[in-house]
Amino acid sequence: MATLVLGAAGAAIGAGFGGSVLGLSGAVIGRAVGATLGRAIDQRLLGQGSQSVETGRVERLRLASASEGEAVGRLWGRMRVAGQVIWATRFFETKAVQKSGKGAPSATTTSYSYSVSLALALCEGEILRVGRIWADGTEIARDRLNLRVYHGSEDQLADPKIAAVEGEAPAYRGIAYVVIEDLELSPYGNRVPQFSFEVVRAAQGEALEAAPDLAAGVRAVALIPGTGEYALATTPVYLEGDAGETVAVNQNAPGGGTDFALSLERLEEELPACAAVSLVVCWFGSDLRCASCAVVPKVTAADVEGANMPWRVAGQTRASAALVPRDGDARSIYGGTPADAAVLEAIAALKAAGKAVTFYPFILMDQVAGNGLFDPWSEAADQPALPWRGRITLDVAPGRDGSPDGTAEAATQVAAFFGAAQASDFAVVDGEVVYSGPEDWGMRRFILHYAHLCALAGGVEAFCIGTEMVALTQIRGPANSFPAVAEFIALASEVRAVLGPDCKLGYAADWSEYSGYAPGNGDRFFHLDPLWADANIDFVGIDNYLPLSDWRDGEDHLDAGWGAIYNLDYLQANIEGGEYYDWYYAAPEHRAAQIRTPITDGDHGEPWIWRAKDLRSFWEQEHFERVGGVRASAPTAWQPRSKPIWFTEMGCAAVDKGTNQPNKFLDPKSSESALPWFSDGRRDELIQMQYLRAMLDYWQGARNPVSDVYGGQMLDLGRAHVWAWDARPWPQFPALRALWSDGDNYARGHWISGRAVAQPLANVVREICASAGVRAVDTRGLYGLVRGFTMSGGQTGRAGLQALMLGCSFEALERGGALVFQTRDGRIAARLDPATLALGESEAAVETRRAASAEIAGRVRLAYVSAEGDFEAAAVEAVFPDEAGGAAAGQELPLALDRAQAQGLVERWLAEARVARDGVCFALPPSLGDLGAGDVVALDLPEGARRYRIDRVEQGEFAQVEAVRVEPGLYRPADEVEDPPRLAAFAAPVPVTPVFLDLPLMRGDEDPYAPHLAVSAVPWPGTVAVWSSDEDAGYSLNATLAGRAVIGRTLSPLVRARPGLWDRGAPLRLRLATGALEAVHEKRVLNGANLMAIGDGSAENWELIQFATAVAVPDAPRVWEISLRLRGQLGSDALMPAFWPVGSRVVLLDAAPEQILLAPAARGLARHYRIGAAARPYDDPSFVPRVEAFSGVGLRPLSPCHLRAAALGAGWALTWLRRSRVDADSWAGHDVPLGESEELYRVRVLEGGALRREAFVRTSAWNYSAQMRGDDGITGPFVVTVAQVSDIFGPGLAAEIALGG
């Protein structure tokens, strides 16, 4: 720790600021931990002369505070905070009185609920968004709250609720806060829950670096993955199981919307400058040989279907579509093609969000290992697994023996790939695009289908007619023609006719393809120029993954002088410079040895035609082809500066040295998977950020020339689409790896979703300094990324910087009156010869020291905030083997880290501490006065060459220096094993399965007018609400059901059996959605146990049965067999058919099914119902609508029994016994109660189903004479039915007898 005093600058940052590293010296941690063991790192660990270190604390409980005058904290990146209550109303009490109305005795219930409105301050400064919200530690959907977010701008207005209550209200400008209005407290035990919020904030202020962060710089993104049958739907899509259970396919996060909707919401708020989206939609290619390659939509399964959005694509149904191949674990290697309906919804949602939509059709090759397809690029019997579409070529690739390249056969094979579909073969029928052309699956059908679909969506801003078909476009026909280019030109004409003049059309060429084709013999073709020049093409699309670095480990490679691969100046110097511009590697061996060959063009003087990076010259110059070494006399059709360039893709993987080869990606399933040149494979999100910042900043201003033809810039940065933002919401993707297997690829992939709001470390440091009044700050050598960081309201700038220094490994120096922050890397600033050093206080030029072992910490623990998940407080520990039993020095950092980062950090601390126990003292002569605290010097000592970082300088006649030993390897990020982030389990609000049952009275005290409702759902929402209305509006709460009913379907038929006797027939097999059945003794059955309804699902057609035996079927989940049954119970025998078919609905009539409210006046009238989770509003998509009318079966008389017919001359004398629907079980009475106001029966005579006679009688007998039969014209068999009549219900169920046979 240098003892130089920083004066005013240091004092402004905070008490005790001073020296080389803000109190954090080279020792960092390790010495004299005794007084601070288990709490914080002692000042002696942090440098000579330092005061104690303040780093903040990790919030574990996240309790909201409400202290008057308490300072509001600050944050950067993404963090979870509790906030401070800054305003609240009194509790508001609501009294509700409900009468049961379900028979006698009636009951009246009075319930009380409470609500409150409150405001919570989140942080200082302007935020980007409030994301996830937790109440009492459980994440809740934002749409469950009446929430208003005030982002903390300097012009925000006062909240209207606060103003209405208080009369006058502050606007809290400069403070981000939320107002929750009318919060219902009953779900939280009638108290205010502890809220915490995911808050996203970027560094801000005038002191920031010139290059924008991603939140400010990204103006367009590519939306992937392009697969997932319902991944693009804004409507929740549900799959129904065969027993009635329901699964939400595209709701995997608690935000209240679909995955796509939540991802789009994050995109809007986290990348506010993003105004354009490239919507990727995939079909699947089958073969690298173009003539054999079918391009088709596929599904992942044929036996599951979206109940409310059946899969349809290009006229294909789920039953007719091919399946996506599966891997060795029987998992689909990709998701299926998005349903057309989902694509339409996505386009509509993007347009509603104000995004310019570019439709981006994408071919995924899905041949797996061992495919048996001849490889056109080699002699292999199999094509590579999951290859790149850019490798689609002839049956024998150009350049190989036997290739048809350059012949008419090549043109024929290309034509077969494109197919014969025409725009006129498509039409819109009932809101779907249908196809009636020839049965081929070529490129034309793929592209034209989506052109028509985009037209059906009301159009899109832009449309790509193809992407990265590199080898295909380079196929030559006769006379050096390029048949694929001609096909694309023809296709562009047809797409133009479909989408009209306002849609911008283009082709997305690979960076190796856009500027021409060099077969390797010295020729140069501008093969795409006819396409670029075509009148139907509006832009030159380039998927730009050109390298921005040629970095190696160590300090002796050719680019090492730039200091770090993260240096923006270095990366930008390679945008129009470096490899593919100034030089190239002629062979792999040259790359390994960094033998760089300059790019030249001999006598022609046009080196730009060989420079893939020279976009400027390509755009500004005429193009002259070279064939046979001869420069063409006439230029191609390209007109200089005639059309803008779009980066249809650009990006860099978050992997070590990703800028060496930004096009490389890791996916173990694909043969294309590879690391960039010289990468060690570590996760590195900083290099991804720096690549994007370099690219987005470089092309601003004068470097981006303006066309004199169309008046716009060469490169349209508004269409520089960063690859990629995911349509699946972060952090569910990548955390839910059992659902999305590509989540394993996220850590080192090209995704920016979930990462875009991370802040450049330099910007965070500069804002902290600026807030303390320090403007003279140099961060050019500071590289790092802050995912999330908080400072409490009372913390000084010194405390915040110390926490960042510990967590991000950098130092603070004073040089020339300015604060210089630089990343620690152990790089040598000077090599010192001990013989040239001055003699100071010691007689020796160099005095070596070693700290005592007792002063070295051998065990360190770090508490931090987990960055990927629910922001849990977590801890890691590192320990030397010889210190396993010792106590740990503890440290807390309010930094968001993943576990691998945190573990690497404590291991670095521990290793650095042990290395730093070796120190030296020496004196510098005036000639070396430029060296100061923080510089690393190399010394050749008797024990060997060592590096030391200057830690303390005392100025006098000589500069007396104390330095500690360092090793550059200490500062390389550790390659720790990464654990997948953990998220709390989430169950989407799925539609429940409601079954209405208008049943006879079972206990006798039910409301005879009201139906029962049985509800099941997987997962169970806890409480189900039933809302009702006489029209489809103005719903009111009818009932709530707390119990999940046992509902299922029959798997075997149930044949008719006599009521009143035990049915000992074959077991009835059932599949239940949930729950279980119980076997009981026959006596319990006779006492009413195990009552079950079986029917067709309509409200009234239910037979009631009972069963004694219930057996779970082995190895068949949720399948049961019931036997020893009683049939036709409670008068339902009259509804018993000849057999109940397979698929009949069954409902166990236990306590779960309950009656809803139905007024007597509403009997028989159709009413509207909405049934769903009580925690959701009734207009939620998960609510099930029903329109039902109920006749009140509880009022329905039972059918008479023992209907007999005795001969009466030539006629018949009919008699019967009545049954009663009420109080008929007692054996004590002389007869069953009448149950109705009078005894009345309706008798009908039917012949062939036609009514011949109807009579009403008041006794249980009726005669049908021969005369009456003759009068009725009956000569053959006939049927007599008898039904008891109710003055309220009318005739009940009828008994019948066949006569005259």
From TrEMBL:
Chain ranges of the Rcc01698-like C-terminal domain: 1045-1147
InterPro entries in the record: GH, GTA_TIM_dom, J_dom, Rcc01698_C
Tip attachment protein J domain sequence ranges: 794-954
Pfam annotation, one family: GTA_TIM
GTA TIM-barrel-like domain residues: 441-734
Name of the protein: Glycoside hydrolase TIM-barrel-like domain-containing protein
